[in-house]
Amino acid sequence: MKQLLGTMTQAIWRWFVPERPSFYDRGLLALMFSLMGIGLMMVASASIKEGPGGDMFYFTKRHLIFLIICLGFGVGTLYVPLERWKEWSGRLLVGALGLLFAVLAVGRTVNGAKRWIGFGFFNIQPAELAKLALIVFIASYLVRRSDEVRGNFIGFVKPLAVVFLLAFMLLLQPDLGSVIVLFVCTFGLLFIGGAKVYQFIGLIIVGLAALVGLIIFEPYRMRRVTSFLDPWADPFGSGYQLTQSLMAFGRGGLFGQGLGNSVQKLSYLPEAHTDFVFAILGEELGYTGVLAVLFLQLLLAMKALQIGRTALLRSKLYEGYMACGIGIWFSFQTVVNVGAAAGMLPTKGLTLPLVSYGGSSLIAITMAVAILLRIDFERRLDTSHVIQREAA
Predict the structure, then answer these.
(1) In Å, what is the CA distance from 94 to each residue of 81, 99, 118, 161, 332?
(2) SS3 assignment, position 248
(3) Could you report the per-residue pLDDT of 16-36, keeping only the tens digit for each?
(4) What integer is the mean pLDDT of 92-115?
(5) DSSP code of residue 257
(6) Which residues have a Cβ under 8 Å from the Cβ of 306 and sit 6 or more positions away?
(7) Where are the domains of the chain?
């Protein structure tokens, strides 16, 4: 047994610290696979009572198929040079807009929201793909129009016009959560790109006023806010989902009830395997499990930002902006999902990256991780060529 443990330890050590220089970030790959594994495990546990036709593993099998499809998209993305993403940024954005138009015309309505386009077994949620397309486009815009962004207000407003168009299409679905993610990612990239602070202050004031208006004039959004402020005022009505989520965290304690032993997933907590999978994780794995998953998500976001910072320092502006945008996307979406499940933020229907059930979200985020790997790969390849030239 000691010999086996020693061999496994050495193998793990050689994976993270290879004897020869590696041309890809093994730590980033390990983070992605770890979160995917945890997600598969928690979806299998949270959805065991929800399968149609008496199939307890209906959602588990679908999630596993989604993961296999994601890996195919990820491998394909790795082979795409970053220069191609820059060239295709406009087309990708137009394609995302086309899908958002299509979902309003022929999309499927679930729980009062028209967000999915059905393709037999698989449903595409264009909002998830639009997040990645927007980051690719804004990064390209910041490189092409850097002087305009830094020098005048028009250069600052132009990319926001694109975001407003996407936001309008998303609000028709409606999907306020994705709109907020798009604005946060865009603001973050414009700030990194050198836009002036006073422009942000004015736009933030306008944005907050618009957000308050959207909440006040839409009854279901107002109910979400009031139930978030005091879910126990109506525990069997507007506050039902949040109170059940809080009960799940409360039952989890320090070490949890044990994997598979959740009570809240037994038809008490709605959307237990999608938006509120984190609450089931807290109930079954406890505070320690919650901290472990949050730590992995933090490392994933930090990896993205570190790759972006390295690229920017090497004057690879497009790669740096794109990596930073992906890091902002991952971190903000994690905060919103966890905050909603824990009662710290209103419910927004955003997935927990690489953990929640949902094919479109998994594909978009896996492609984003593959882009990060490609950015790091090209940087390492350039470095090795420089070293070879110096040696020669």
Answers:
(1) 20, 9, 20, 14, 25
(2) helix
(3) 556 555 667 888 999 999 999
(4) 83
(5) S
(6) none
(7) 94-113+126-217
